[in-house]
Amino acid sequence: DGEVHINELKNGNTEMFWNPTSEVRRQRLKRHIVLFEEQMDFESERLWQHVTSAINKGDQHKATQEKFVLEEEQRNAARERRESGAEWKPLLFRHDAGTNEWRYKYEDLRPWDPLNDIAQFEKDGILQTMERHLSTRMSNHKTTCINNQITRHKRSAKDCRRRKTSDQPSNHSQNTESSCSTPESVQELSDDDGKYLGFESLCAQCGKEMNHLKEIHSAVLSLQKAQQDIHR
C-alpha cells in the first residue's frame, strides 16, 4: 500500500512504478501473526529474522550471506539424518506415493456449508473450521424422524398385505387390487419424500428449528460475503 519506484542506476532517473490510491490503502488487510517471543525456532519470522533485517537495511550482501547460512544448516541436518538412518517425520505434511507430492495433512476439501460453517482459522499450524452445531443437531433429528416414519409406513404396508392375503381367495389374489399400496423403494428419501409418503410435516420440533435456521441464514450469508471479500 505504498509507493514503488524504479531507480535507473546508469543515469540516476527515477520512475514511479506503483502509487496506490486512498481506496487501495483503506482496503489493506490487517496482519495477524503470533508474537515473536512466542514463536518456535522454525517459524518463518524467527527463522528468517537476520535475512529480513538485512533486507530492511538495504544490505543485499548481508541478506545473501544469512540466507546461505540457513540453507547450509538445513543441508547439514539432512546429511546427518541420512548418515544416522533417522526418519524425517513432518508435522503438517505427508508424502503421497501415488503423485510423489507432499500434501497438507489437515486439508479440508469439502464444500463450504453456509448454514453450518461460520469461519475458517489456523491454530498451531492446523487449519480448522468453526461450525454451527445447530444444523448438525437438526440434520440428525430430521433423519431420526424420517427413519421412524419409514418404520411406521413399512409396518402399515405389512399389515395391509397381511389383510389382503387373509381376506382374498387364493385363486383371485393375483387379480385383486388392494386399497393399500407400497412404493417400490422407501429407503432413498429426499427432503420432499415425506410428501410422497403422505406425511404433511416431520414434527413440531423440526419445523421450529427450521424457522430458526432461516432466521440465522441471512446473518451467515453476510459473514460469508465478508470472508469472500477478504480472500479477494
From TrEMBL:
Q: Which GO terms label this protein's molecular function in UniProt? A: lipid binding
A Pfam family annotated for this UniProt entry: Oxysterol_BP
- InterPro entries associated with the record: OSBP_sf, Oxysterol-bd
Comp. bias intervals (Basic residues): 151-164
Biased composition regions of type Polar residues, renumbered to the chain: 167-188
Top-rank taxon of the source lineage equals: Eukaryota
What this protein is called in its record is OSBL5 protein
Q: Which organism is it from?
A: Thryothorus ludovicianus
